[in-house]
C-alpha cells in the first residue's frame, strides 16, 4: 500500500454553520475552516499550487532557493511546501508580525529577513532575485495563486452548499482567494455575489490590506468583486473574540474582519446562503494580546 504524503491533505476543509452570531434570521451563514490545512491557513493552497506549477514548467527544481515577501501565512505555507519538496526558502516579512508566525517559518527551516513593511519586503524580494540570490514566486502577480482557489476552494464551496450559495465573503490581502473563488463560482452561477473585505482608511488588520495604487496585486481584477465592505480593526478583533467564545471557532483577526462583513451583509438580505473564509487559527496571534489573558 502506498500512503499519501502531507501535501495530499491540503484543501477539503470543513464548511460549518454559525449557530448564534447571526441571530434571528432567515439566512444561513457558513464559514470555511482554512485553519484545518496542514500549515494552518488558507495559504497552504496557493503555496502548493505555485511551487508545483513552477516545477511542471521547469522554472524551479528541488535544491533551488525560493524567495518571497510575506506578512505571515503565505510564508509559513511556503516554508512547509519547501520542506516537503526540497527547497531552500528565504522569507522577507514586516518586523511587526507576531512571534508565532516567525517561529512557524523557522520551524519549517526557512530563513527570515525582517523589514519595515510589506512594500519594502516586496521590493527587496525582487532586488534579491535580480542579484541572482533566488527565485521569487511572487504571490501578488503569480496566476498560480488564484488558480489554486479556482481549482479547489471554489469547487469545494459549490459542492458543500449543493449550489445554494448566494454570497461569498473574503478578506483581501494578495486577493488570490477572492479572485480564484469568484472566477469559479461565477462560472456556476453568475448571480452569486462576491464581497471583498478591506480595512477602513487608517486601520490596520493583519492579513487584510488597502494597497497603494502602485502596489495593487497584479492578479486583482476589480470586475470580479461585486462589492467591498470596509471593516475597522476594532470590529475585526471583537468579531474574532466572539467567534471563539460564542461559536467555538478560534481564528485570527482577518477572519474576524471577514465574518464581521458577512454578518453586516446578513442584516441586509433574506433567505441567503452566505459563505465566509476563516483564514487561519487563533493560536498564531496569542502573543499580540488580541485575546484576553
Automatic annotation (TrEMBL):
GO molecular function: cysteine synthase activity
Keyword Oxidoreductase: no
Gene3D superfamilies xrefs: 3.40.50.1100
EC primary class: transferase
GO biological process, one term: cysteine biosynthetic process from serine
UniProt keyword Cell inner membrane present: no
Domain Tryptophan synthase beta chain-like PALP intervals: 7-280
Pathway membership, UniProt: Amino-acid biosynthesis; L-cysteine biosynthesis; L-cysteine from L-serine: step 2/2
Catalytic activity as recorded in UniProt: O-acetyl-L-serine + hydrogen sulfide = L-cysteine + acetate
Binding site for pyridoxal 5'-phosphate: 73, 173-177, 254
EC number(s) given by UniProt: 2.5.1.47
Modified residues (N6-(pyridoxal phosphate)lysine): 43
Domain of life: Bacteria
Cofactors, names only: pyridoxal 5'-phosphate
Keywords of the record: Amino-acid biosynthesis, Cysteine biosynthesis, Pyridoxal phosphate, Transferase
Protein family: Belongs to the cysteine synthase/cystathionine beta-synthase family.
Protein name (database record): Cysteine synthase
UniProt organism field: Acidihalobacter ferrooxydans
Amino acid at each position: 500500500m502506498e500512503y499519501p504524503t502531507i501535501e495530499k491533505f491540503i484543501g477539503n476543509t470543513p464548511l460549518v454553520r454559525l449557530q448564534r452570531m447571526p441571530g434571528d434570521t432567515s439566512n444561513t451563514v457558513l464559514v470555511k475552516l482554512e485553519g484545518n490545512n496542514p500549515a494552518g491557513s488558507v495559504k497552504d493552497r496557493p503555496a502548493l499550487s505555485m511551487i508545483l506549477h513552477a516545477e511542471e514548467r521547469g522554472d524551479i527544481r528541488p535544491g533551488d532557493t525560493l524567495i518571497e515577501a510575506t506578512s505571515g501565512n503565505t510564508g509559513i505555507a511556503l516554508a512547509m511546501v519547501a520542506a516537503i519538496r526540497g527547497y531552500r526558502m528565504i522569507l522577507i516579512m514586516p518586523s511587526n508580525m507576531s512571534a508565532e508566525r516567525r517561529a512557524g517559518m523557522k520551524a519549517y527551516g526557512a530563513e527570515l529577513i525582517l523589514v519595515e513593511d510589506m512594500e519594502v519586503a516586496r521590493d527587496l524580494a525582487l532586488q534579491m532575485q535580480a542579484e541572482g540570490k533566488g527565485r521569487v514566486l511572487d504571490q501578488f502577480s503569480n496566476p498560480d495563486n488564484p488558480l489554486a482557489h479556482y481549482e479547489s476552494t471554489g469547487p469545494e464551496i459549490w459542492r458543500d452548499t449543493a449550489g445554494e450559495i448566494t454570497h461569498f465573503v473574503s478578506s483581501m490581502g494578495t486577493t488570490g482567494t477572492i479572485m480564484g473563488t469568484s472566477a469559479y463560482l461565477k462560472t456556476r452561477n453568475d448571480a452569486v455575489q462576491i464581497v471583498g473585505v478591506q480595512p477602513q482608511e487608517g486601520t490596520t488588520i493583519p492579513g487584510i490590506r488597502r494597497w497603494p495604487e502602485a502596489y495593487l496585486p497584479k492578479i486583482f481584477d476589480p470586475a470580479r468583486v461585486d462589492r467591498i465592505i470596509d471593516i475597522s480593526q476594532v470590529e475585526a478583533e471583537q468579531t474574532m473574540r466572539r467567534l471563539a467564545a460564542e461559536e467555538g471557532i478560534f481564528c485570527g483577526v482577518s477572519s474576524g474582519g471577514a465574518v464581521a462583513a458577512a454578518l453586516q451583509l446578513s442584516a441586509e438580505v433574506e433567505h441567503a446562503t452566505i459563505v465566509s473564509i476563516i483564514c487561519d487559527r487563533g493560536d498564531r496571534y496569542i502573543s499580540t494580546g488580541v485575546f484576553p489573558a
